[in-house]
Specification:
The complex is a heterodimer of chains A (about 240) and B (about 475). With about 240 residues, chain A is α/β, with parallel strands linked by helices. Chain A has helices spanning about 10-15, 15-30, 45-50, 50-65, 75-90, 95-105, 110-115, 135-140, 145-155, 175-180, 180-195, 210-220, 230-235, and strands at about 1-5, 30-35, 70-75, 105-110, 130-135, 160, 205, 225-230. Helices cover about 50% and strands about 15% of the residues of chain A. Chain A is globular, with a radius of gyration of 17 Å. By secondary structure, chain B is an alpha/beta fold. The chains are: A alpha/beta (about 240), B alpha/beta (about 475).
């Protein structure tokens, strides 16, 4: 299968290793991977703030970029949810409606793509660490992915997966929410990161680089272990 | 842990400024936040236990949602039907367009009855219309008979949570409160505290001229009022005084008596983790000839107060499904961290953030819709399937249309313009990465808000697109 990478803007600028890990895993499974360099942002910041005209402008650009791709795979549940769930909503009744629905059907979150589209759970990775999984809210509640990332982690050699007591609680990032209501956002990070840290894991695995930014930001400021790692990096075996 | 009480409003602050101020104060009180989290821990356990007793909780949600959906979409038919049957049973319906009209109706009924003392059972609609203040200002003595509401009345505070009004108050504080107001000796036994309130209340039921109740459901088929409660106080409030006045929003009407078969257990399970609430009563009119008890008169005030405006909004109409179970508050990370008073609204939590802009104005109350990470935990637990967190997005969109922040709109326009030009976006990304160290030093807003409590990693040397180009060579 020819897979178009959907690299969210902050992965592009702040976490390039995550995008590379996605490509590594997909290629290892025998698929051709392309990066369409005209891609920019999914438009979620404007959409979440209520500025839908601006979000629509960004969305129609993304529709053009990913036109014709057999599958679009991105390492962020949040940005994928924007394309899958919210593009059809904001483009309903416009000439782009059909294209939006079409893209929604072809766009996948990375772990989801492996398990649900490719039917793979064991990608041959080894990661000799105790880890816990942080559910990103968009993955969990917009894309309904709960078991898929855990199936992938359970198949990793020498990996010990433990659950935290706030597994389904939000990390408090929420995009602009994190700076518009920083005190609330931070309190939420404190609750979630505290719970994750209590599992005494070596790594917090996540499918959302934005949650990672929030959790690592709080953990680093409070000099607490552990740190986060993206699911793709674990599966690529590029970090250990 | 400090004692948490309703903060005094700062002078001339907007609702948003007040929210930001109170939220900042509240999150600092980690003892209180832990107290709330622990209090809700027991609720999660019993809620999960009771949900598991449903053959299929998701199907029950469908059924409950459908019952409310079909009623809310036929209010024009069901409200007159309810009214006709309620009045045929001997009750009297009063229509109130807004809070002011509702208060006037109640005050006139009290005056006509030459009432002096009023006893009330739990009713959030009366909080919404600030009825107690109006009655007290007119000279009536008013006592809340629900234990939580009674405690809040003695504390001079509104409810902290619309189902658990005093969940923020510790047992020792209640003991001290009762000692101060009722002269009772200190105790840490919840049973004894309940008995103190109960002994104090008994006489008041008998002395009251009028009992004011709420209503959980109004049954169009039979003209009955359904009230669900755990303490038996609503029964006494309705039965002992000469006159009963019930106050309810127009969205409380449901079509059939049978609908209660799903709605009552779902309300109890979602709201309090109970299989059923202890007392479920149907009120079908005042005392009829030959009956030995019940009030002589039964009135129902049906309140609009902007509900018809919400009804006209097809996108958010399902917010009128709300049965006020409070399940969305109990799972909301915002509520759990900022507490009930910070909202400054009658209805706290996610559903309050959805409906308050409709009840009180979007321009002033949209910040509640912004104060959410959109995690969606609320929508997942709503027993009547209100699309709560997506409605927060709808409110944000409506506010951006009607009262946009100029600076924010400019920012998003600029961002969209750049995002539509791949070369500009790549250049912008490069500039961001190369100047991030400087930005971290200078801390311009909104970066300052992030850096105040969280670190930001250093920017990597290369972007993905640059690394990808090398990789493909």
């Amino acid at each position: 299968m020819k897979i178009a990478l959907f690299i969210p803007c902050f992965v592009d600028q702040m976490a390039p290793q995550v995008g590379l890990a996605v490509a590594t895993v997909l290629e290892r499974l025998g698929h051709a991977v392309e990066f369409r360099s005209a891609q920019t942002c999914c438009g979620q910041p404007a959409f979440n703030a209520g500025y839908q005209d601006e979000a629509r402008a960004v969305a129609t650009h993304a529709l053009k970029v990913f036109a014709g791709a057999e599958a679009v795979v991105g390492p962020s549940g949040s940005c994928v949810a924007m394309m899958r769930v919210f593009y059809p909503e904001i483009l309903a009744g416009t000439p782009h409606e059909t294209a939006a629905l079409d893209l929604a059907c072809r766009t996948f979150e990375f772990g989801e793509f492996l398990v649900k589209k490719l039917g793979v759970t064991d990608v041959g990775a080894r990661f000799p660490h105790r880890v816990t999984y942080h559910d990103g809210c968009h993955s969990l509640r917009e894309l309904r992915l709960r078991d898929e990332p855990r199936q992938l982690l359970r198949a990793v050699r020498d990996l010990d997966l433990v659950e935290c007591d706030e597994a389904e609680s939000c990390c408090g990032f929420g995009g602009l929410f994190s700076v518009k209501f920083p005190m609330v956002s931070t309190a939420m990070a404190e609750v979630k990161a505290g719970s994750l840290a209590r599992t005494e894991c070596d790594y917090i695995v996540s499918s959302d680089p934005s949650c990672q930014l929030q959790l690592d930001g709080w953990l680093s400021r409070h000099q607490r272990r552990p740190r986060t790692i993206h699911l793709a990096e674990v599966l690529a075996g590029t970090a250990s | 842990m400090t004692t948490v009480s309703k903060p005094a409003p700062a002078a001339a602050a907007s609702a948003k400024q007040q929210f930001l101020h109170d939220a900042a104060e509240h999150v600092r009180d980690t003892g209180h936040r832990d107290f709330i989290r622990r209090a809700l821990g027991g609720y999660y356990t019993s809620r999960d236990l009771q949900q598991a007793r449903f053959r299929n909780w998701e199907h029950a949600r469908d059924a409950a949602s459908l019952a409310k959906w079909s009623a809310v979409n036929r209010l024009d038919e069901l409200l007159p039907q309810f009214t006709t049957r309620f009045e045929a049973n001997g009750g009297r319906v009063h229509w109130a367009r807004d809070a002011e009209e509702a208060r006037q109706i109640v005050l006139e009924l009290l005056a006509a009855a030459k009432a002096k003392a009023v006893i009330k059972s739990k009713c959030m609609t009366t909080e919404e219309i600030h009825l107690n203040q109006a009655m007290e200002a007119t000279g009536f003595s008013v006592v809340e008979s629900d234990l939580g509401e009674f405690i809040q009345q003695l504390r001079g505070e509104p409810p902290y949570h619309f189902v658990f009004p005093c969940m923020h108050v510790r047992r020792e504080e209640i003991s001290d409160l009762f000692g101060k107001h009722l002269g009772t000796p200190p105790t840490d036994s919840p049973e004894e505290l309940t008995m103190i309130a109960r002994r104090h209340m008994r006489r008041l039921y008998v002395d009251a001229d009028v009992g004011i109740t709420g209503a959980n459901f109004l049954i169009a088929e039979t003209g009955q009022i359904s009230i669900t409660e755990n303490e038996g106080n609503a029964r006494l409030t309705a039965a002992l005084p000469r006159i009963q006045i019930a106050i309810a929003g127009i969205e409380k009407v449901i079509e059939r008596l049978d609908d209660l078969a799903v709605l009552l257990p779902m309300l109890a399970t979602a709201g309090a983790g109970q299989p059923m609430t202890c007392y479920n009563t149907l009120y079908a009119g005042p005392r009829a000839a030959g009956e030995c008890d019940g009030p002589e008169e039964m009135h129902l005030v049906l309140l609009d107060n902007s509900r018809t405006a919400l009804l006209a909004d097809a996108e958010q109409r399902d917010a009128l499904h709300c049965i006020r179970c409070g399940a969305c508050l109990n799972v909301c990370p915002i509520f759990k961290n900022v507490g009930g008073f910070t909202y400054g609204t009658t209805y706290q939590g996610p559903i309050g953030s959805v409906i308050t802009p409709h009840l009180r104005g979007l321009a002033e109350w949209n910040h509640l819709s912004e104060a959410s990470s959109l995690c969606g935990a609320c929508t997942d637990v709503c027993p009547v399937r209100i699309d709560i967190h997506h409605h927060l997005l709808h409110n944000r969109r409506n506010a951006a249309r009607t009262s946009p922040s100029r600076i924010e709109r400019l920012g998003h326009r600029l961002f969209a313009a750049v995002a539509n030009r791949p070369w500009a976006f790549a250049a912008g990304g490069w500039a961001f990465r190369k100047t991030l160290w400087l930005a971290k030093l200078l801390r311009p807003p909104p970066l300052s808000a992030w850096l105040a409590t969280r670190d930001l990693p250093p920017a990597p040397a290369r972007s993905f697109r640059s690394a990808w180009r090398s990789r493909q060579r």
